[in-house]
Amino acid sequence: MRITESRFASDFLYNVNNSQQRINEYQNQLSSGLRVNEPSDDPEAADLILRLNTSLSRNEQFTSNIGSAQSMLSTTTDALDGVQQIIGQLQTTMTQAANGAQASTIPSFADTVDGYISQVLAQANTQFNGKYVFGGTQTQTPPYVLTPNAAPPPSETVTFNGNAGTISYAVAEGQTQQVNVSGQEAFNGTALLDEMIKIRDNLKAGIVPTAADETAVQNSLNTLLSASGRAGTVLQGLDTTAAHLQAQHTQLLSLRSAQQDTDVAAATLNLKQEQTTLDAALAIGAKILPLSLTDFLT
Amino acid sequence: MSGLSLILETARRAMQAQQTGLGVTSHNIANATTPGYSRQVAGFVPTQPLPEPYGLLGTGVTVASVTRMRDQFADAQIRDVSQSQSRSSMENQILSQVQSSFNEPSDTALSGSLSQFFNSWQSLSVNPEDSSSRNAVLQSAGQLAQSFHTLNGDLTQLRSSLAEDAAAKVTSINTLTSELSTLDRQITAAHAAGQDANDAMDQRDQKLQELSGLINISVSFDTRGSMLVSTGGSVIASGAGSLQLTSAVVGNSIAINTSLGGPNLNVTGGELGGVLNMYNTAIPGILTQLDQAAGALITRVNQIHAAGDGLGTPPPTGNAFFTGTGAADINLNPALQADPNLIAASSDGTPGDNTNALALAGVQNENLLSSNSVTIGQFYNGVVSSLGTAVKTAGDTSTQQQSVLTGLQNQQSSVAGVSLDEEMTNMIEYQKGYDAAAKLVTTVNAMFDTLIQMV
User: Fold this and answer.
1) Can you tell me whether residue B308 is helix, strand or coil?
2) pLDDT at B1
């Protein structure tokens, strides 16, 4: 085959150009830190990266949802614990009133019970982040309201403005978790407060609590404990889910990094190699290109 | 006596022939770097011998022709490959621009806005009563609509610039075809007068090659060396003249026609073929897919949203979330923008209920596209990754064909290219030949002197 000077030149340029393109590619990878800067760099990886991005973003949202769920449930269990303590004190007071109290002192117990009633009312109307936690899905109105009764007994009527609605958060892929305890469930609707008002009214009138009253209070406590227990279980479950999400997050990040990030060691090595090749090509080109027979003719 | 004169004449012819040879060599050296130039070779042939009683007596040399060295077959192949190479390269360029408009993978591109949008519904489901969560939904929805608009706008803009591009290429094609037919006339005229037209033929080959980079052509030559250039079955250039092409946007696509009218030309190759394919097929395809994604999102979100309840007494219901039907006109319902309480997070009208917000967040996982087989996000990812594949394929094809083209050009240059070493060698040969012939003249001259002195 005849080889001409222009062939030398065009081949030389072609090869040097290719080499420079590869150097440019490695430099891009190293300076951006990303192996896939555009879908065309690796279409399959790009598809995977987009999917991983979505999964990561969902994962982070779930973690944030769980955070809110945990706060909501903690507020709920704290309030329930408070009510549980008040019921314990109420039971003590009831026992004291029933056992050997002077008839004249009995009405004074009514004031103590009255205090308990306002404490329970305050807890039952607990707010978290601007919402009443025991109102079901009626979160914007106080669930429990006491109004004086025109025709006693009882002296006050308890109204439950909430409902039994459930509030669920999305906590993981395809998984929602109920995060509220309605007053319907925790306090048996108005039953606890109704009973407490009845006991107070009776004490005021000098009537000591009966065994039936004690049973009613105990039943309310049991209902409360089971609601509190359920909330506690959900909280624990959320801890597990959160830990799982965290592990998944790490996993997703490492998967994405494997697809998207530059292997710095390999890219650096490739770059060095390519630079050496280019240096050699340029040096040889500079030696050979200017040569022709004219250099030797005298 | 006649013998010596004959030798003198032979020597004269030799000197003239070597001089012509040197002339051709100098033309070659001068054009060593001229694009499309083919080296020329002086064709030396012996002149008519004289019949003598003892046989034929040679009478010297003459230059019968100056031929250009050209591999016609390689030329035809170069034209073929160049058509598809320049088309792929053009497509690669345009698709890369499309790809840049998508700006994926990135958090700030449409895929990020889409995730953000669905996440904001989840955040709202956590705090359905909260006005800041409601505003966050509005903000992310606005961002998403904006992403669709930007992408749609960029691609539409790019596409309309392609129409101008096509018109410019048609102008170049018309210039080339008219130059070609002028050159062809010159060549035919020279041939008819029995002359060589090497340089004009080089130019013609060069322009044919340029033309094949712009549009798919087939070229044939008749026995007199006159060309016939046709594209898509219509002759667009010959010695008789050239047919001007026109480019016009007809309906939703660019149509290439001739000044004679008739059916549109089927342009499949060259840069024009690439531009046409992008304008008529590829970009509208991507725009349609974006419209499908936006349309599915609008329909489904509106459907769920209208069924839910906002905040208020009585709870507002039946409101659309988005307006519009596609990527170009998707927008947040202005009524919601004005009153975030219209956002329907609740299903039963109570402020704490988040069922509808959860349902809207769930749209992210609903298979709404491609016959209900993929989610909006997956569909969009599919668009992006097939775009990536298209860019890569066009780039790879272009590179691969470029190397075929380089191979063919090398093959052509091994025949047609000027080698300075070779020309130097020829120069020495001609110079020595000239020297020798001149020496012959001196010798014959001396013999004449000898003869004259004898008298």
Assistant:
1) coil
2) 40
Tell which residue, B272, B277, B294, has the closest CA to residue B95.
Answer: B277
Taking the Cβ of residue B354 and every Cβ of chain A, the question of whether any pair is shorter than 8 Å is answered with: yes
Q: Which residues in chain A are contacts of B133 at CB distance < 8 A?
A: none
Q: Report whether A124 contacts A83 (CB < 8 A).
A: yes
Q: By the 8 A CB rule, do B109 and B103 touch?
A: yes
Mean pLDDT of A223-228: 94
Interface test with A, best of B25, B99, B115 (most A CBs within 10 A): B115
Pick the closest to residue B131 from A130, A41, A56 (CA basis).
A130
Q: Is-contact B279 B159, C-beta < 8 A?
A: yes
Looking at residue B2, its pLDDT comes to 55
* N- to C-terminal Cα separation, chain A: 28
The rounded distance, in Å, linking the Cα atoms of B330 and B234 is: 45
Per-residue pLDDT at A30 exceeds 90: yes
Per-residue confidence (pLDDT) for residue A147, from 0 to 100 = 92
**How do residues A33-58 score in pLDDT, each as one tens digit?**
999 999 999 999 999 999 999 999 99
- Is residue A53 within 8 angstroms of chain B, CB to CB? yes
Q: Do B391 and A2 touch (CB under 8 A)?
A: no
Interatomic CA distance for residues B188 and B204, integer angstroms: 12
Q: Judge whether B246 is closer than 8 Å to chain A, CB to CB.
A: no
Q: What pLDDT does residue B223 have?
A: 87
User: What is the average pLDDT across B229-254?
Assistant: 91
- Which run of H or of E encompasses B383? helix B376-416
What is d(CA B391, CA A46) in angstroms, rounded to the nearest whole number? 13
Are the beta carbons of B272 and B89 closer than 8 angstroms?
Answer: no
> Chain A contact for B391, CB < 8 A?
yes
In a 13 Å sphere around the CA of B19, the CA atoms on its Cβ side amount to 8
ipTM of the complex: 0.86
Neighbour count for residue A272 (Cβ, 10 Å):
11
What does the pLDDT look like over A86-113, one tens digit per residue? 999 999 999 988 887 677 788 888 999 9
Instruction: Write down the H helix ranges in chain A.
Output: 5-32, 43-98, 106-124, 183-186, 191-204, 211-260, 264-288
Listed by number, the residues of chain B in 368-387 with a beta carbon closer than 8 Å to a beta carbon of chain A are 377-378, 380-382, 384-387
* Distance from the Cα of residue A20 to its chain's centroid: 49
CA B99, CA B387: separation in Å to the nearest integer?
7
Nearest to A176 among B130, B358, B420 (CB): B358
> Pick from B118, B352, B388: which is nearest to A136 by CB?
B352
Q: Are B256 and B170 in contact (CB under 8 A)?
A: yes
CB pairs under 8 A between A and B: 177
Of A38, A39, A170, the CB nearest to B361: A170
Beta bridge partner(s), residue A168: A178
**Mind listing the pLDDT tens digit for each residue in B364-407?**
999 999 999 999 999 999 999 999 999 999 999 999 999 999 99
Tokens 């990303």 label which residue? A34
User: Does B414 contact A3 at a Cβ distance shorter than 8 Å?
Assistant: yes
User: Is residue B142 within 8 angstroms of chain A, CB to CB?
Assistant: no
Q: Is the pLDDT of residue B413 over 80?
A: yes
What percent of chain B is modeled with pLDDT above 70?
100
- What is the least distance, in Å, from the CA of B48 to any CA of chain A? 34
SS (HEC) of A62-96? HHHHHHHHHHHHHHHHHHHHHHHHHHHHHHHHHHH
∠ CA(B120), CA(B122), CA(B125), 5° rounding? Answer: 115
